[in-house]
Every structure is written in C-alpha cells, then in structure tokens.
Amino acid sequence: MTKISSKDLGQDPIGKLLIKQAVPASIGILVMSLNVLIDTIFVGNWIGSIAIAAINVVLPVSFFIAALGMAIGIGGASIISRSLGADNPKKALYTFGNQITLTLIVTLAFVAAGLTFVDSIVPSFGGKGDIFDPAKVYYIIVLYGVPVLALCMMGNNVIRAEGKPKFGMVAMMIPSVGNLVLDYIFINLLDYGMYGAAWATTGSYFLCFIYIVWFFRSGNSELKIGWKHLGLRLDIVREIGALGFVTLARQAVVSITYLFVNNILYHLGGEASVTVYAIIGRMLMFALFPVLGVTQGFLPIAGFNYGAGMYTRVVESINIAIKYAALLALLVFTFIMIFPEAIARVFTTDADVVNNTPHAMRWVFAATPVIAIQLIGAAYFQAVGKAVPALLLTLTRQGFFFIPLILVLPRFYGEIGVWISFPIADLLSTMVTGYYLNREVRQKLKPAISAEKE
C-alpha cells in the first residue's frame, strides 16, 4: 500500500490526482445523500409528513454518536497519511488498531447513555406533540446500529488514507442501496411503518460493516494489524483525539444547531416548519455532494505531501481544490435557485410545507458559491495535523456565528430570521477562514518552499 500511495499521492499531477480522489468520494457522498433523500421521500409518502419530522429529530443524536467514529477515523487518517508520506508504516498500523479500540469503547458508552435517557433526549431535540411517538420508535432502533455505523465511518476514512478511494466509494454506496431496498420491503410491502424505516436503516449499517471487514482482511489493504496493535498507546490516542476532536466538535455543534432550530421553528410554525427544515437539511446533504467530495479528496493529498515535505505540492493542492470546489458550489447554487418549488413537491404533498419550503431554501443556499474557501481551509489544517486552528475554523460557521444568529434574529424577524442566519454565517466564516489560510500559506508554506529549493 505504501508504494502505491507514494507513487500516486506524491508524484501524480495535482489536478489529475484530485479528480482521481474526489470523483469516487463525490459518487459515494452522492449515493449516500440520495439514500437520505429517497428515504425521506419514501417515509413522507408511505408513512406521512410527521414521519419526516420524526426522523429529523433523531438524526442529530444518532449522527453525533456515529460521528465519534468519523472523528476517530479522520483524526487517525491524518496520522496514517502523514506516516505513509514519511515512510513510517509501523505508526500507521498502531494508529489503525487504536482507532478500532477507541471507536468501540466510546460509541458503546454513548449509546448506553442515549438509551437510558431516551424520554428526555427526544423531546429536547424537537420531538414533541405528534412527533414524539414515531421519533422515539425510530430513535431506539437506530441507536442499536450506531456503533456499527461508527466503525464503518472510521474504516472508510482509513481506506481513503490508504489511497484507495474507489473502495471507499463502494463502502458508502452499500448502506445507501441497502437502506432503499430494505425501506421498500419493510415499509411498502410489509407495512411496518416507522419500525420498518428504523430497521431498514440499522440493517444497512450492518451490510456496510461486512464490506469494511472484508476489505481489511483481503489483499486490497496492506494495513494488516494484529492483536498487539489494538492496545491503546497514549501518544497515538492523544494525536487521534486532538485531530478527531475537530470533527467531533463540528458534529456536536451541528447537533446543537438542530436542537435550537427544531425548537425555534416548532415554536414559530409548528410541525410544518420543522418538516420544511427537514427537507432543506436533506438538500444540504444531497446538493453539496460534489463540493464535499473535493474536500475529502483533498485531505489525503495534502496530508501525504505535507508529511513528505513536498510543500510546493501542498500549496498547489490548496489552490486547485478551492477552484474546483468553488465552481461546483456555483453550479449547486444555480440549481437550487431555479428549482426549489419542484424540489419541495418531490418530498410531500402537504400544502403548507410545499408553499413555505422554496423561500426558505433560497435563503439557506444564498451564500453557497463562497463556501469552498471555508471547507478547504478548515480541511487543510486538519490534514496537516494542526488541531487547534482546524478546530477553531471548523467551529466558526456553526458555533461562533450561526448559533448566536438564530438565537437573536428570530426575535426580531420571526421565522425568516432563522433562514437568513444561514447565509450570514457562511459569509462571515468564509472571511475568517480565508484570512487564516492565506496567512498560513504566506508565513509557513512559502518559506518552507524557499528553504526546500535552497
């Protein structure tokens, strides 16, 4: 694996390499997002619009626990990429083993807590009134499978760190396709309602896990760990924790954001407004798939070349990634601005939801063309192992700007205050990230390039 990765990540032209890494990542995210999108359509049409709101209530909790695995995966993947670039496979093996152990310990503990306090957690995230019962059903069943999902998310990031983006793409596609098939069987054919939707989701996690295990036990992966690699090493745990905390903090803030927005919208407009936000949330996951794909493709390239001391290629990867992501973001923006009414009608026939969604969606996506700088900038600091700036820049949009805005603006502007908070936060966070990324290039990378040439 190191020979293949060194040749690809350290020698291929950056533009070609980014496409090679980003396209499978984008396809994987697209299929995963389509799964969430179609799943929402199935649930909305086969169960009802209340079921959409119920799932939206549960997602921040289940995604947060699953994000523990993603955090450990991304934090460890950064170490693995840089270790491979520095020709240190031993550290890569111990890092992977520690990732597995950490993911199991942490997620099982959170799931136990989540099941213990279910009756308090569901209402606090907006599961009130008619939403409570279906949300509780979905929450309990999905939580059983969340540790498996966490292992899948962790493993997927390690696959990409190995320089195997096509296998990572398949790992993302399997649960998506599996969920849709199981949805059709459990909801439409067997008429299990919310129970069917929940078991379809949980079952799809196990399908993905089987594939992840197969990959690492096959000849496709050269990260062949033994029992000795599973023992926790303090130095590696600290490094994984520092870098992984960036991802975890981001997901934690996203979960808090859902908590605030769902409750504010429920107070302002009831179940219909919560459903509007659920639809927009699905579109945020779906429509931005190419931009997020470029970001994922950028991570191993930047990490490997930084670890190898090839700083010219690091700067080139930053510039090209921002250009690609910005162009794709502009295309997404154009699509959303033209077709919001048609998008709303795909999800539900509820007149209130269909009428209110387009205006809100246009506001939420209004600043999409500028988000490339924010995404790539935060990803760069995480890729090269700089945990503190990565954490701060990751929190700028949701934590430092968006949450204060949604707590203040709705008091003056009502429901529209929620929607205009999205583009304002995007613009402010992009300005901050752009400043720090530019400073990093001028003060750190360019001097290193000059020293390299001398």
Number of helices in the DSSP assignment = 16
Structural class designation: mainly alpha
Oligomeric form of this entry? single chain
Using only C-alpha atoms, the radius of gyration works out to: 21 Å
Helix content: over 70%
The SSE string, one letter per element, is HHHHHHHHHHHHHHHH
Sheet of most strands: none
The termini sit apart by: 32 Å
Strand portion, in percent? under 5%
- Taking pLDDT < 50 over at least 5 consecutive residues as the criterion, the unreliable ranges are 1-6
- Extended strand count: 0
Summarize model confidence as the mean pLDDT. 83
Shape: globular
Throw out a few tags for this protein.
mainly alpha; globular; disordered N terminus
Description:
It contains 16 helices and no strands. The chain is mainly α. Helix 4 runs antiparallel to helix 6 and helix 13 runs parallel beside helix 16 (415-453). It is globular, with a radius of gyration of 21 Å. It starts with a helix and ends with a helix.
